Amino acid sequence: MAKRKKAKKKKINTGLWTKQEIKMLRTLFPKTRTREVAATIGRPPEATKKKAHKLGLKKSKRYLKSIGRA
């Protein structure tokens, strides 16, 4: 049997948040899908969502309207 090659996964940061990551989160979170923000920052989506909540960030009304939730 031939050996399977493992797909390389993008490294996901699970440590402390840097100032730059928080700045990016504040900029991107209100108007971008959480999954996309997480991928851009290099964090898991759930961690991104939790950090945004802790910072008091919310999706903008314009974004919510664009996805049919407002």
Strand content: under 5%
Give the helix proportion (percent range).
Answer: 40-55%
Cα separation of the termini: 54 Å
Number of strands: 0
What sequence of helices (H) and strands (E) makes up the elements? HHHH
Radius of gyration: 15 Å
Sum up the overall morphology in one term. flat
Largest sheet: none
Treating each run of at least 4 consecutive H or I residues as one helix, how many helices? 4
The class by helix and strand makeup works out as mainly alpha
Mean pLDDT: 90
Q: Runs with pLDDT <50, length 5+?
A: none
Walk me through this protein's architecture.
The chain is mainly alpha-helical and 70 residues long. It has a domain at 19-66. Helix content is 49%, strand content 0%. The chain has helices at residues 19-28, 34-41, 45-54, 61-66. The chain is flat and about 55 Å long. The protein starts with 18 loop residues before the first helix and ends with a helix. The mean pLDDT is 90.
